[in-house]
Amino acid sequence: MPEEQQDAGEVLIVTGMSGAGRSTAADALEDLGWYVVDNLPPQMLKPLLDLSGLAGGALPRVAVVVDVRGRDLFRELPEVTRALREARQHLRVLFLDASDDVLVRRFESVRRPHPLQGDGTILDGIRRERDALARVRESADLIVDTSNYNIHQLATQIVDLFAQEGEAKHTVTIQSFGFKYGLPPDADLVADMRFLPNPFWDESLRPYTGEDDAVREYVLGQEGATEFIDAYTTALLPVLEGYQRENKRHSVVAIGCTGGKHRSVVMANELAARLGQVPGVAVRVKHRDLGRE
């Protein structure tokens, strides 16, 4: 009798810009127990998943690195991904990105050409790759900008994102940040806390952060603070429900203030506490710019 085929379990396609950290991400996933396949042509994805299904649960989490090293074969990734999404519910795409200047520095530091550079410069290769990856990036489930990460920080981020999450159907990262340091490039939603008075201008509070009780009480005591948190939580509930219906497993909600030290930290913690009560949602909190001043 033919061997019975089972669901291959979770499948993650890892792709993105050359130099953005695909190898580091793959290593981190492997350390988490994922079965990792590197540099697989898109056309081989379905046979691999069929094989993992025949393994009878021996490969519950499969990560496949697919990128422009596949040359002309890579062009079919959007079509292959779309077909696989229609056929299974546990397929996700992780896209790793970084700014052009960071990618140039990384290639220069290892003294290797960009795979699409040809007779041009590294930057020429990066631009060609961005054009080739535009459709893939648009349809990715999760985009991670690694511009400000070293390899250890990226590995930690991957572990945070893909460690076992129990029964959670969606994981939301609530991230505080300072507008003066720039918007988080991977944010799905952004809220601005600069409508609240800044504790920075109170000399007794300036040395403290939003993690301290005195600052928390000050911020939450301001007119409109608790009203905003209550209303924003309510507004996010249908969004998170929609993400679950669309099988979007991760999202980032960014909460900003001027420096990312006081107001945004308090409000991010408060929002996380409320969303942590939502069934099927796992919440992580990240304070991007805390301690930067």
Q: Would you give an account of this structure?
A:
The protein has 293 residues and is an alpha/beta fold. Helices cover 39% and strands 18% of the residues. It has 9 helices and 9 strands. The protein has helices at residues 22-31, 45-54, 77-87, 100-110, 122-138, 151-162, 213-220, 225-245, 263-275; strands at 10-16, 35-37, 61-65, 91-97, 142-145, 170-178, 189-192, 250-257, 281-287. The strands form 2 sheets. It has a 5-stranded parallel sheet, sandwiched between helices. Strand 2, helix 2 (45-54) and strand 3 form a beta-alpha-beta unit. The longest helix has 21 residues, at 225-245. It is globular and about 60 Å long.
List keywords for this structure.
9 helices, globular, 293 residues, 5-stranded parallel beta sheet, 4-stranded parallel beta sheet, alpha/beta
